[in-house]
């Protein structure tokens, strides 16, 4: 568990570089683990904009 948290922190801070594709996959895992499955009735289009998923997070990354 702590290893996963440390890796997540390293990816988000930029200490562990990742490609855009890797950021989207790891970000989707992070969002699902913290917020659960997407439910259109409960969550709007910008429901993950407050979550840090990458050092240079863009709207494109959030949409994927």
Automatic annotation (TrEMBL):
Which Pfam families does the entry link to?
A: FERM_M
Under the heading CDD domains, the entry gives: FERM_B-lobe
What positions does the domain FERM occupy?
Answer: 1-64
Q: What is this protein called?
A: FERM domain-containing protein
Q: Which organism is it from?
A: Cirrhinus mrigala (Mrigala)
């Amino acid at each position: 568990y702590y290893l996963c948290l440390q890796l997540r922190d390293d990816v988000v801070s930029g200490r562990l570089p990742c490609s855009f594709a890797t950021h989207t996959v790891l970000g989707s895992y992070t969002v699902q683990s913290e917020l659960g499955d997407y439910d259109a009735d409960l969550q709007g289009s910008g429901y993950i904009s407050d979550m840090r998923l990458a050092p240079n997070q863009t709207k494109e990354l959030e949409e994927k």
